[in-house]
Amino acid sequence: MQNRSVTIKDIAKMLNISVATVSRALRDTYDVNAETRQKVLDMARQLNYKPNFNATGLAKGSTHNIGIVLPFITNYYFSTVITGIQEIAYENGFNITLYLTNDSEERELSIIENLSVSSLDGLLVSTSSLSSVHFQELIDMGIPVVFFDRVAKEVVTSKVMQDDFNGAVEATEHLVKNGYRNIAHITGPRGLILTEKRVQGYLSVLEKYQYPVREEWIVYSGFSQESGEGDVNHLLQSADMPDAIFASNDRKAVGAMQALKKRGIAIGSEIGVIGFTNDPISTIISPTLSTIAEPAFDIGKKSCELLLKHITKKNFIPEEVILPCRLIERESTRR
Predict the structure, then answer these.
(1) Residue 58 pLDDT grade (very low, low, confident, very high; cuts 50, 70, 90)
(2) CA distances from 131 to 26, 36, 123, 264, 319 (A)
(3) Where's the HTH lacI-type domain (predicted)?
(4) How far apart, in whole angstroms, are the C-alpha atoms of residue 176 and residue 173?
(5) How confident is the model over 119-144, as pLDDT tens digits?
(6) To 5 degrees, how large is the angle CA 206–CA 180–CA 329?
(7) Which of 3.40.190.10, 3.60.20.10, 3.40.50.2300, 3.40.50.720 is the CATH number of 164-294+328-333?
(8) Do residues 97 and 120 make contact, with C-beta atoms less than 8 angstroms apart?
């Protein structure tokens, strides 16, 4: 083998052990026995292995750079999260680099495969992919990864989220208490934890009040305004129309409102609409949009704090943090 082509995967294959074990042995962590470590070191010497990044440097945070992988920056939620991340990063002498996936699984995979790991101490991720293998491989190589908002459930590392379940409960129950009975939910893509949690919260309220659950009133799609408009156009084609719509984010809610306006349907008195985010657009649109405010800034701060702990402490135990949301009532849910 040529020196530059030898990776820890090659060593793992030759010894018939996992990539994670090779990575830990090369970093001399406490959970690899001496015999295995010696075998790894001997094979590394035999193959003339040269690491493509300085694992010791990474553990000490010596590059003082962290990467952020996220779907968008034009989105209010993510721009606010970045502001929170920046505050903690800069306080601790770290620079940040943004990697945008445009909500594409293929682009996310390409970004991770081509990542210059030698220039990063760790990674903050809001994933666009239903697969998590590529992130697990980074962690196995010794690169700290922390997820926020859209997290990978299979990967054991720190994660920071808003309380999607109880936020959805609060949104749906707000509609019930304002007199709405036939409530639809236009939600995000299937497979995302936040989508699942918000659907579960919505369904739990319908069950509590013994309201009908109609599969056709739960519409899965993207998070854009266009998705929201398309979802509502789909809903309005059915014989039984809902009298309220809970949207999984404010952009979708605005799209829903646009669709209703085009059909001459009065928002609030005929069909109520509530969103999730507290995007500034919710106070600009008419009628103003009721919503569930997410703690985006605090999510950014907390996720960065946890990443720095993973970077600086070799055996830091992963934490899962769930921050509370808050109902904001406006005109779109007044009958």
Answers:
(1) very low
(2) 27, 30, 17, 42, 21
(3) 6-60
(4) 5
(5) 899 999 999 988 888 999 898 888 99
(6) 100
(7) 3.40.50.2300
(8) yes
pTM attached to this predicted model: 0.81
- 60-161+296-323: what fold? Rossmann fold (3.40.50)
DSSP letters for 153-221: TTS-S-EEEE-HHHHHHHHHHHHHHTT--SEEEEE--TT-HHHHHHHHHHHHHHHHTT----GGGEEE-
CA dist 312 and 212 (Å) reads 51
Residues of the chain with CATH 3.40.50.2300: 60-161+296-323, 164-294+328-333
**164 contacts: CB under 8 Å, gap ≥ 6:** 193, 194, 197, 198, 201, 325
For position 51, what pLDDT does the model report?
61
The H or E element that residue 321 is part of is strand 320-323
Q: What angle do CA 88, 92, 98 make, to 5 degrees?
A: 60
User: How many CB atoms lie under 10 A from the CB of residue 95?
Assistant: 12
Question: Which CA distances in Å does 203 have to 214, 276, 324?
Answer: 10, 16, 19
Question: Tokens representing 231?
Answer: 């979802």
Edge-to-edge strand ranges of the sheet holding 244-247: 218-220, 183-187, 244-247, 272-274
The per-residue b/e assignment along 12-25, b for 16 or more CB within 10 angstroms, e otherwise, is bebbebebbbbbbb
> H-helix or E-strand containing 98?
strand 95-100
287 upstream amide cis, omega within 30 of 0: yes
Angstrom distance (rounded) from CA 147 to CA 318:
11
